[in-house]
Amino acid sequence: MTYQQSFSGPGLMGLLRAGAAALIAAAFIALVFVLAAFLTMAALVAAGVAALGASAWWLYRKVRGGKDKSGPTILVARRGPHGWTVDGEDQARGA
Predict the structure, then answer these.
(1) CA–CA separation, 3 vs 6, rounded Å?
(2) Which residue(s) pair with 80 in the sheet?
(3) pLDDT tens series, the chain, 95 aa
(4) Which residues make beta-bridge pairs with 85?
């Protein structure tokens, strides 16, 4: 009987090898699950930061307002030929 034949049988060494293989496989599967959990956590954190940034931008635009106007529109009422009228900014004055 050779050295290889005596230690590869169903004896104690075969049982230890099977246990070591099972332990390595379980560790690898656990590592895959942990890495997936960390990747999911990183994606959720990035989505949360993006949502906070978008909400801060929305609030900033709501509080500051648009850039198209420098202030409130003031309407001026004038007496016309048919009574009082209010001209908007897009209408010609004096017409």
Answers:
(1) 5
(2) 83
(3) 555 555 555 688 888 999 999 999 999 999 999 999 999 999 999 999 999 999 999 999 888 876 666 667 777 888 888 888 876 655 555 55
(4) 78
Given this model, what pLDDT does residue 82 score? 81
- CA-based nearest residue to 73, from 85, 62, 86, 59: 86
Give the whole-angstrom CA distance, residue 61 versus residue 54. Answer: 11
CA–CA distance, 89 with 86 (Å, rounded to integer) = 10
Q: Report CA torsion sign: 12, 17, 22, 24.
A: positive
Q: What are phi and psi of 80, to 5 degrees?
A: -105, -175
Q: To 10 degrees, the CA torsion angle through 53, 56, 62, 65?
A: -70
